[in-house]
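If you are new to this repository, start here. Below is one unmodified record pulled from the training split, so you can see the exact layout before writing a loader.
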Amino acid sequence: MGVQLISRNTTAPWNTKVAPPITRGLEGWFTLDTDARRFGFNRAPGKPDATIVGAPAAFSGYGRFKGNVNYLQTQIADSDEMTLIVVGKATNALVAGVDTVFLAGAHLGPVSTPGFTGNASGINLFLDHPTLFKGSGSRDSGAGTANASTVSGTGTATNAWAIRSMRAKSGAATLLTDHTAGVKVTGTDLNARVLTSNKYRIGSATAGFTGESDISFVAIHSAYLTDSEVEAQIAVIRKRLARLGITA
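And here is the target side for that same chain:
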């Protein structure tokens, strides 16, 4: 199984679109390496590019971001069904309760779901512990506001490369997976998701999470992918990582 490259009016590899095995709900496909000027290019066909904020740094195989300073602002809106797949790590070893690293997500902002007040978050994938990886997102509190619903698991050291994913939708459990360590955590909150008006970011939340991250790849789907669909995407992702010398 391979990846179809769609190149229009150019043969340059960095600005080709992709057709990975699973295109259901594909909103963003970002490959981050070599040249920071290209970080914002969205390889998902027909989808808008991200805006580069600040000055993220480029390395061979990945980009380096700092929360609230250097990050990518996408145009991807929150939706009831969402899936994130991220290849990343904390730049430095984390100290529990001190350092926080935001990999990707739509962090706290005004609610967009009708009938709710206050703030809400999309789904967020982050690190704040030497081995814990976490996912959060807003769900119906039952009182017209949004509750933060968080899932966490123990997996790969957070300052080591790993492929992590998060999936969430109303009426279903949040699924948080460290595919490198083979750890899958299933949430217990099945309440309806409450959506945020914020767009998804890579490398930064809207507040807090000031740590540095190294990120090589991000896929964002407005769909709750199945296990087999996620694994099909990861098979392609791993081929790219192998070319870059990244083991995850």
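Two things worth knowing about this chain: Residues 23-244 form a domain with the Jelly Rolls fold (CATH 2.60.120.200). The helical segments are 227-244.
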